[in-house]
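Reviewer 2 asked us to include a model.

Predict the structure of this chain.
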Amino acid sequence: MLKTAEDIRQLNERISQAGQFTDKLRNEVGHVIVGQSHMLDRLLIGLLSNGHVLLEGVPGLAKTLTIKSLATAIHAQFSRIQFTPDLLPADVIGTLIYNQQRNEFVVRKGPIFANFILADEINRAPAKVQSALLEAMQERQVTIGDTTFKLEEPFLVLATQNPLDQEGTYPLPEAQVDRFIMKVVVDYPTMSEEQMILRQNVSGAKSEPVRQVVTTQEVLHAKDLVRQIYMDEKIEQYILDIVFATRRPGQYQLDKLAPLISYGASPRGSINLALAAKAQAFLNKRGFVIPEDVRSISHDVLRHRIGLTYEAEAENLKVEDVIEEVLKKVNVP
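Predicted model (structure tokens):
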């Protein structure tokens, strides 16, 4: 539906007011976390676009502390699940326990029943445990025995995996990886940031605990507003061109990429690119999407949705290089 300039102006005003809470969250989490603004912004995009985020980074980059601080600042329920090879599906979603006094089976809910779920080192658990997350992530519900339970909103799964240690791990299948709206690569802090981290931890001075600065109702209201953000047909076409260029590179004068890509982004790639672009516009307090919103989140949305051939690996080509070539070639509206 086309919106008039007046409609967009009014939406801009509403988003400018509603978007104030993102600044509060950044400031509050910033009291505990030094740097890592990219990771925090991507978590907020996942939260606002009703998606889940896969984080990849070496240990010690404050991944756990960031999501825990974010949950505290929103006063949301937080659960941390440490994935290990001996974990069972019941350890994640819950199970039926026999109650001798009542002579019946009762449901004992697992840690998945929370607003923010940290699935730590998700690739350490076998496939049956990973798949236990699928229903919760996609349908936002959990089935235990014959009963199905709806999960409370907001609901965000943040899964982490260590890119270095691959021994004894179970790589996530494409079907599950595709359910994450973004795969975010967390990098080391800069030298100045690490100096601040070092001083904070060596001095022994305790940092102030994270306070609640936002309510879950504000977050749910913001999620509704994100869906209303205006996206022009030209931006839609731009998103489709980017996704289709990963599937049929030859049609976009990217013939050299054709033998390097084994499969391109799925329709979820298009949907999530549009949703994440709207959330990015919201973070910038804008009521409409611009091409830069799409470009800025393309790497994170697409890097786990493109498969490379052995030829690409032999040439030491990375998925990021493919996405960069696509963004260079596809016409910007």
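The chain has two domains: 5-216, 230-329. The chain has a mean pLDDT of 84. We have added this to the supplementary material.
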